[in-house]
Amino acid sequence: MRAVDALMECLKAEGVDVVFGLPGGANLPTYDAFYDAGIRHILVRHEAGGGHAAEGYAKATGKVGVSLATSGPGATNLITPICDAMMDSVPVVFITGQVRTELLGTDGFQEADTIGITMPVVKHSFMIQHPLEIPRSIHEAFHIARSGRPGPVVVDVPQDLSRADIPYEPVTDLRLPGYQPTTEGNQKQIRLAAKALANSRRPVIYAGGGVVSANAGLELVELATSDKFPVTSTVMGLGAFPAPHEQWLGMLGMHGTRAANYAMDEADLIVAIGARFDDRVTGKLSEFAPRAKFIHIDIDPAEISKNVPAHIPIVGDAKNILPRLTAEYRALVPEPTRFDEWWSRIRTWQQRHPLQYEDSTDSEIKPQYMIQALYEATDGDAIVASDVGQHQMWAAQYFAFREPRLWINSGGLGTMGFGLPAAMGAKVGCPDRTVVGIVGDGSVQMNIQELATCTQEDIPIKVFIMNNGYLGMVRQWQELFWDKRYSQVDMGKWPDFVKLAEAYGATGLRFEDKKTLVSDMKEALAMDGPVLVDVRVTREENTYPMIPAGQPARNMVG
Amino acid sequence: MLSLDELEAAVGLRTGRKHVLSILVENKPGVLTRIAGLFARRGFNIDTLAVGPTDDERLSRITLTLDGAVHPIDQVTKQLHKLVNVLKIRDLEPKDTLARELALFKVSADGASRAEVMQICEIFRGKVVDVTKRAIVVEVTGTCDKIDAFEQLVRPFGLIEMARTGEIAIARGRGET
């Protein structure tokens, strides 16, 4: 059998039902195999769109996404999605074509050192050197991508090797002696953590994207409600704990709520779960949570004490650890009223500093209201993929995510252009759910070509552009920190998104009136096929509250 | 009952001394690049690096030294462990470790000074491996410190050039490194 046909068998054995890709010279053999392999292939318009779609698929479903590209420019177009998947721990296998082995190292046509270029931003990569290596490498790639701390894996396949005939036998064993992630948390450490919780008076649970990756949302709720532990999360962890819950403090960090940030600041014990103390969370590191001791639960030992020293490190899978921690805690029967004072302090912050904005009195649509309207129109029952910028932060603040995997965004790398293709991938993975995109007029243009893919493949996503005609977040920083010198942030009034949507065969709409916004949105959501909505919002509105970069939580403004 | 005040943090300590890491890796293409790249992007400085085969042809051993005054060694080893091709890392304890380096010194030595250089060489149990009219080449093995000391002594004679391998190391006693 041809090695590429074996590759198809491997994909099927891994449960792959859909891939996102674009063919070219070096992966022609692979595409010949796709012709009748029985795996759905979605032809994207740009490899970056395919990579982000695979990420969106993986984030929405919890399965491994697959993205394909040819050699050279195809592979280099994948760099951003690969790096994005690395930063946000998204399981994606990227299969790239490579020039024939005899051309390697000769600067052949469409040759790029894909393995070399991607090395700093992959969890692992495989350069195929013999056709017999293909099946094993594919299976090992999937195993590495999905296990431990998930991440991107690249498999680079030279064209001539992919056409070779090989005897194919299903691979049943993996040979990865250097890869053994720790999943079971240490029982002694878990017991110690339970005791620390029982002795805390001002605890906060700080959940990150790791809780979502571990599918440990319910386990988190169990732990939090085994007593009255306040819960906050990073932008990556939204939905891990239901936002309507009374123990929810809102997101923390640069644009988090005051209650969450002040609680971290005054906490005596912080339980970090699948979170990595990013600078957008800690602000000024030396003044971050100065009174707190830290329990740090993470599957990646290198995250423990990387930025903030952990007092009780627990390495392992949150899904394994959290129920055991809850059980240990319950066995201790701590003093039930000891959080009363803490909660009354938190409630004061919540009452004094709720998320707020000055709403318009006329038909003008405030961007915050746009998010609230979309929440109302969808009843909160939608997968929301966002781009990066002000709209992302407002969505994180005002869309109350009730369950994990409803919120899909690019957190670590902060990739503009992520939202639309990620929504596309999420919809492919979850066809029965409403999938909306919340994007900026700046960011959506970075991968808007995938609207054509959505039309052709009938992927009915509903994308709402928060259009203020600016690169809004940059404009905000220029306003606040650079004396309002608005350098290169005005996007003008182009393109005409309605016409553009129509040109792509999608439905284009424009909403400008606040009074009818919710019902207009409901109508858009009910339409068939992909819909692109140009929502005109206030031009100069700032995302608040905000911890200025490099400052402590105490210095929140707005 | 445990009090929170009793908890001590596991900090990324800077130990202040030289560390010798012995790293067993799969003998596959690109492994050294992965390790070098990891050090570069995380800002860790390698002082010396030596790579060679082991008794098992599927494995290579990388011995590298770095300064524990500048780097949190635990963070270095944890990041290394994340590389799939890295099988084992030992942060070797100086007292339980035999470390050796090989160095070649080309010293300008004519007439009178030649005898003196050869005398120093003898004290260091070095070997003269090449002699010409105006220079000799000396081979010295030993710990890093010993080679530093030799260098200091021969430098006044006119050190033309020097090549050092970087330390390799193995654990003392029966146990595996």
Which keywords apply here?
heterodimer; A: 558 residues; alpha/beta; Rossmann fold; 3 domains; six-stranded parallel β-sheet; 36% helix; B: 177 residues; alpha+beta; Alpha-Beta Plaits; 2 domains; five-stranded antiparallel β-sheet; four-stranded antiparallel β-sheet; 9 strands; elongated
Give a quick precis of the structure.
Chain A has 558 residues and is an alpha/beta fold. Chain A has helices spanning 3-13, 28-34, 47-61, 73-76, 79-87, 114-118, 133-146, 159-163, 187-199, 209-213, 217-225, 258-266, 279-282, 318-330, 340-352, 367-378, 390-398, 419-429, 450-457, 472-481, 497-503, 517-526; strands spanning 18-21, 40-43, 65-69, 92-98, 124-127, 152-158, 203-207, 231-233, 248-251, 269-273, 293-298, 312-315, 383-386, 407-408, 435-440, 462-467, 507-511, 531-536. In chain A, helix 1 (3-13) runs parallel beside helix 7, helix 3 (47-61) crosses helix 18 (419-429) and helix 16 (367-378) crosses helix 17.
Q: Unreliable runs of chain B, pLDDT <50, ≥5 residues?
A: none
**CATH class category label of the largest domain in chain B:** Alpha Beta
* Widest sheet, order of strands of chain A: 2-1-3-4-6-5
Average pLDDT metric of chain B: 92
Structural class of chain A: alpha/beta
Q: Based on the structure given, which CATH architecture of the largest domain in chain A is correct?
A: 3-Layer(aba) Sandwich
Under CATH, the topology of the largest domain in chain A can be stated as Rossmann fold
Give the C-alpha Rg of chain A. Answer: 24 Å
Overall morphology of chain B: elongated
Secondary-structure element string of chain B: EHEEHEEHEEHEE
For CATH, the homologous superfamily of the largest domain in chain B is named as: ACT domain
Provide the low-confidence segments of chain A as ranges. none
Radius of gyration of chain B, Cα only, in angstroms? 20 Å
Please outline the major beta sheet of chain B.
5 strands, antiparallel
Count every beta strand of chain A, where a strand is a DSSP E run of 2 or more residues.
18
The count of domains of chain B is 2
Binned, the helix content of chain A reads: 25-40%
Fraction in beta strands of chain B: 35-45%
